[in-house]
Specification:
Protein name: Galactosylgalactosylxylosylprotein 3-beta-glucuronosyltransferase
Catalytic activity: 3-O-(beta-D-galactosyl-(1->3)-beta-D-galactosyl-(1->4)-beta-D-xylosyl)-L-seryl-[protein] + UDP-alpha-D-glucuronate = 3-O-(beta-D-GlcA-(1->3)-beta-D-Gal-(1->3)-beta-D-Gal-(1->4)-beta-D-Xyl)-L-seryl-[protein] + UDP + H(+)
Helix content: 25-40%
CATH topology of one domain: Spore Coat Polysaccharide Biosynthesis Protein SpsA, Chain A
CATH class of one domain: Alpha Beta
GO biological process, one term: chondroitin sulfate proteoglycan biosynthetic process
Number of strands: 8
Organism: Potamilus streckersoni
Largest sheet: 4 strands, parallel
Number of helices: 5
Order of helices and strands: EEHEHEHEHEEHE
Structural class: alpha/beta
EC number: 2.4.1.135
Radius of gyration: 22 Å
Shape: globular
Strand order of the largest sheet: 5-4-3-6
Strand content: 15-25%
Length: 198
Amino acid sequence: MWVTDRQESWKDPSEYKHPLQGPGSEKEIIRKTLEFEHKPFDTKKDIPTIFAITPTYYRLEQKADLTRLCQTLRLVENLHWIIVEDSVNKTTLIKRLLNNCKVRCVHLNAVTPPMFKNNPGRKNFPRGVAQRNAALSWIREHVNPKETQGVVYFADDDNTYDVRIFEEMRYTNILSVWPVGLIAGGKFESPMVKDGKV
């Protein structure tokens, strides 16, 4: 025997039907899913666009990291995701992920020069710089600042973001910095600040 949540009556589990079970319900779920997936990108002219730049490179957790980021970015209005692979060619993995993600995006690739690759003898090395620069070049080339008001945000794929942060950053005048949840092993990340300048 089985008890309902309110314990108002006893019911045999074989008689229990989930609210989504029943004639036509599966088709209804599929129809609603397809409507959501094919909904055109929501673009509003009255709020600034966020250009989220994400450098990425192949590793075992890459797809999981990017899927998590994609799920967050889908919740943000007027966002343009620029994802740049550290690769000679654009990979099928990222192409498929972006196709399923349904976020307005640009897929680029830029290889990190060998002198900046992870070197065991070197403590600090620039990561994602070539990719961020490629994305900034794309913005300068394809976005007219007179027509499109917006901000640039460097959204690393190994961080976790609260969606409220995007509404705050949308109205940045010069520079803004926020704490984010780190997924990778580091305790913290921050911009380099010297004499009050980033």
